[in-house]
Write a structure and sequence with these properties.
861 residues, alpha+beta, 5-stranded antiparallel beta sheet, 4-stranded mixed beta sheet, 11% strand
């Protein structure tokens, strides 16, 4: 019998020899896959020896699972094994068996194998995999090392027979989305996890897991043979996968532990380990670590694109259904809410269609993304986007139309970046894709920071985000050209990493852009000013004495007028918020607001409390109140409890109506329900005012559902004093004959439904239209945190059906999720609802997945 020390020494020597050969190859990825297999094979041989020495019967099986199961073993990864027993065998009931298994596991650790072990019968494996998708995934990649082949084959067959590919696909995609949320939904964090982050190795593994479960193959070449991937895509996947694997191997070797994060402390060491060195002529501007991270980010970006393409392809094949193909124009069509090209070679033949893709995506509200066919066509058309493409006047016009749209700017620009179109159209932007910022102030790469700032500016113009930064929302509501701010956001940091002052260089870039794209002189001067001065307001606010009148006077002279000041203030707040969730705080906000108000006074303007639009609504509402002979200042008790988002989301007539009904009932203990004819279209407008409670929205929706009233619009608002003030537009299935009788009934019965205790009514199984049956719309649920992870945005897209909103509300109430705002939109046969929610359950990943799964199930039902 070979001693454990001899086994250990041989294993270490063979492992070191394998890794040293890889180290000599530097950044070359040719050997990396072979090295991972060799490490797995060395481990296999050692485990076989220890299995024999433990005198374990050939009636049992030693099985590799997880990454080890797919013969992919990294230097410091755990070695996951399963001791598989026949049904009826149990170490608890067999002392000799228990001793031998313990001896085997102990000897593994003694020779230096860091194993993660489990001991289960076949029945226990099947039971656990049915309950836990993580166990199911690990067993999906199981591989026999030694022992009974018959037992393993029997287990394997039973496992595959029990596996539901569709359910597995949904579970893994939900799990992936939650993992992406954890990493801010970006592969560009400054310290990414090369295994778990978006664009990491796990995203590639997900593709192979769902493909293997569905029987489409467990290798990239098998996916190509099955028609799910093209030969070009497979070659790109293999190249980027090898690079990510190589980086992970060197991370393990440099850190001496299982470390998958490219933390700052290790980036330079890993770069040097890979032989990456910046050219001498560039050492002033480029670090070795930047070369490494640039390679990593480009690989991760490609993985994100390919992951999306292949998962959409697999989903379409797994869940074939009649597709609702609606022509948009000669080039594009709506495929069940996804934008699809009409031909695979569209972009090669008509390059103008590339930017048109994103304009159509913006202007068609029912579109939620790009289809696999469109993504694939864009991926293959990158060579078309050359200098001629960038200088084409038609493309200039299309890009400006994208920038000037009222909605969808953030989604369009992010999608353009994800598909590599933005960097190929704006060549200066391409330079900063994956560009690191070596400070703790920014937690994103330059391109992602820019898109985050663009998002923040856009949110100032959206009523549902008015609660975040009220003054910014107030100012934005009176701004006439939002696209000017979007352009400034897009260029404010575009010259990072070139050396010199990036603000001045960026101003030169944006001046060139404006001239090329036909921007008027006044707008060009403002955009250029914002790019050049985008750091000045935060610097002055945080580093000077704002009580010094000379400081304020100098800053006022610098900005020149109120328009420039307001634009700079909005960009500055958006910029600071876009650096890191931890950077912005109330104190910085107060300093910037003080500087804004002090400077505005010097410029001869005034510091607005609410914005002009909100003030106009209030004045109009007060005129309406006066016409109804309401007392002077009757509005104050109610209005003092409401914030800016309320006034931005209700028109003057609604504000006046609420005020008339509630002015003397602001602190009431009972539920107040008032109903009137809808001011717009048919149906009723219903107001509910009551102390907020977790299931309030569900009870309201439940009442409407049982009463045959269909909710067309819901505006939910919670006052500063904890009262819900909700307004609903509802319609009946048939015309209302006796309006007074119906309104009295709704006011009485809904108030009773709100105040009653006990369980909520059961879920509704609403009817769906024949059109929806023939052309089902894929149900989609998205749950994403806000930047402070305290509130969440829940987006739901599905086929419309009776009782749908109640079922959603009931699910949220079941998990004690509170509703802050609701935006209900019905587009023909499709509903696109957005909810701002919070609750303790949302802080737990497992609970999040459970909520999303339940919502998906009820939407599909």
């Amino acid at each position: 019998m070979t001693s454990l020390s001899e086994i250990r020494n041989r294993y270490r020597a063979d492992k070191d020899m394998t890794l040293s050969a890889l180290a000599k190859s530097g950044i070359s990825t040719r050997r990396v896959n072979g090295v991972l297999r060799q490490l797995a094979q060395l481990t296999d041989a050692t485990l076989k020896t220890l299995w024999m020495q433990a005198d374990l019967d050939q009636d049992f099986s030693l099985v590799a699972v997880g990454g080890f199961g797919r013969q992919e073993l990294f230097p410091k990864s755990d070695i996951d094994v399963l001791v598989l027993l026949p049904n009826g065998q149990s170490p608890q009931n067999d002392e000799r068996l228990r001793h031998r298994i313990e001896s085997f596991i102990s000897s593994c650790w003694d020779v230096g194998l860091e194993i993660g072990s489990s001991v289960r019968t076949v029945a226990e494996c099947l039971s656990e995999s049915a309950k836990d998708v993580t166990v199911q995934t690990a067993l999906l990649e199981s591989r026999l090392i030694t022992g009974s082949a018959l037992l393993f084959q029997s287990f394997r067959q039973q496992f595959l027979d029990a596996c539901d590919p569709k359910a597995f696909f949904v579970a893994k995609v939900l799990e992936m989305n939650q993992r992406h949320n954890k990493f801010e939904d970006t592969p560009y964090a400054l310290e990414p996890n090369c295994k778990e982050s978006p664009g990491g190795l796990r995203d590639l593994q997900v593709i192979l897991w769902v493909s293997r479960a569905a029987g489409y193959g467990n290798t990239w070449d098998a996916l190509a043979r099955s028609g799910l991937a093209t030969a070009f895509e497979v070659s790109q996947i293999k190249r980027n996968e090898a690079l990510l694997r190589l980086i992970r191997i060197h991370l393990h070797l440099v850190s001496g532990r299982r470390e998958d994060r490219l933390v700052f402390d290790l980036q330079t060491a890993v770069a040097e380990s890979l032989g990456l060195k910046a050219p001498v002529s560039q050492t002033t501007f480029v670090r070795n670590s930047e070369l490494l991270m640039k390679r990593y980010y480009w690989a991760a970006k490609a993985v994100v694109q390919l992951n999306q393409i292949l998962l959409l392809n697999i989903e379409e094949r797994l869940q074939p259904a009649p597709q609702a193909l609606m022509p948009i124009n000669a080039r594009f069509q709506d495929k069940s809410g996804l934008l699809e090209v009409t031909s695979d070679d569209l972009y090669l033949n008509e390059p103008h269609a590339i930017l048109e893709t994103f304009l159509i995506f913006q202007t068609h509200s029912g579109l939620k993304g790009l289809s696999a066919r469109t993504l694939r066509a864009l991926y293959n058309a990158r060579g078309v986007m050359d200098g001629k493409f960038r200088n084409d006047p038609v493309n200039h016009q299309t890009f400006m139309r994208i920038l000037m749209q009222r909605e969808g700017i953030t989604h369009a620009m992010r999608l353009m970046n994800q598909t590599s179109v933005l960097g190929r159209y704006l060549w200066v932007f391409r330079r900063i894709v994956g560009q690191m910022q070596h400070d703790l102030f920014h937690v994103y790469t330059v391109d992602q920071h820019i898109l985050m700032v663009l998002r923040n500016v856009r949110r100032f113009f959206m009523a549902e985000h008015a609660h975040e930064y009220p003054l910014c929302s107030q100012l934005a509501s009176g701004w006439d050209k939002p696209w000017v701010l979007y352009a400034a956001a897009l260029f404010h940091d575009i010259a990072k990493g070139r050396g010199g002052d990036h603000s001045d260089l960026g101003a030169m870039d944006v001046r060139r852009f404006c001239r090329q794209h036909g921007v008027e002189a006044d707008d060009q001067r403002l955009i250029e000013f914002l790019v050049r001065e985008h750091l000045s307001m935060s610097r002055i606010a945080q580093k000077t004495d704002l009580s010094d009148s000379d400081v304020i006077a100098a800053f006022a002279a610098r900005v020149g007028n109120e328009r420039y000041l307001t634009a700079l203030y909005l960009l500055t707040v958006a910029d600071i918020r876009g650096t890191s969730p931890k950077v912005w705080n109330a104190w910085k906000g107060k300093l910037l607001e003080d500087l804004y108000r002090f400077t505005l006074r010097v410029l001869g303007g005034y510091a607005p409390a609410p914005d002009a639009e909100v003030e106009a609504r209030k004045r109009e509402a007060m005129v309406t109140l006066a016409l109804h002979a309401m007392p002077f200042e009757v509005h104050k008790p109610l209005w003092d409890t409401l914030d800016i988002s309320y006034f931005m989301r209700h028109d003057a007539s609604e504000i006046a109506w609420h005020t008339r009904q509630l002015s003397r009932l602001v602190k009431t203990d009972r539920a107040i329900v008032r109903t009137r004819r809808s001011p717009v279209g048919e149906g009723l407008q219903v107001m509910v005012y009551a102390k907020d409670q977790p299931d309030l929205f569900a009870r309201i929706c439940g009442y409407f559902n049982q009463s045959g009233l269909s909710i067309q619009d819901a505006r939910i608002h919670t006052s500063r004093t904890g009262y819900a003030l909700d307004t609903f537009q509802v319609i009946t299935q048939s015309p209302i004959d006796n309006h007074r009788e119906v309104t009295s009934m709704v006011e009485f019965e809904l108030a009773q439904a709100i105040t009653q205790r006990g369980p909520l009514p059961p879920q509704s199984r609403g009817r769906i239209s024949r059109r929806v049956k023939s052309f089902p719309i894929p149900a989609r649920v998205s749950l994403k945190p806000d930047e402070k992870a305290q509130r969440w945005l829940l987006s739901i897209s599905a086929s419309d059906q009776a009782g749908l909103l109640y079922n959603v509300a009931r699910t949220l109430a079941k998990h004690s999720v509170n509703l802050q705002l609701a935006k209900v939109v019905t587009l023909g046969e499709r509903v696109d609802d957005t909810f701002l929610i919070d609750g303790a359950a949302l802080q737990n990943n497992r609970a999040q997945i459970e909520i999303e799964t339940e919502l998906l199930d009820l939407l599909k039902a």
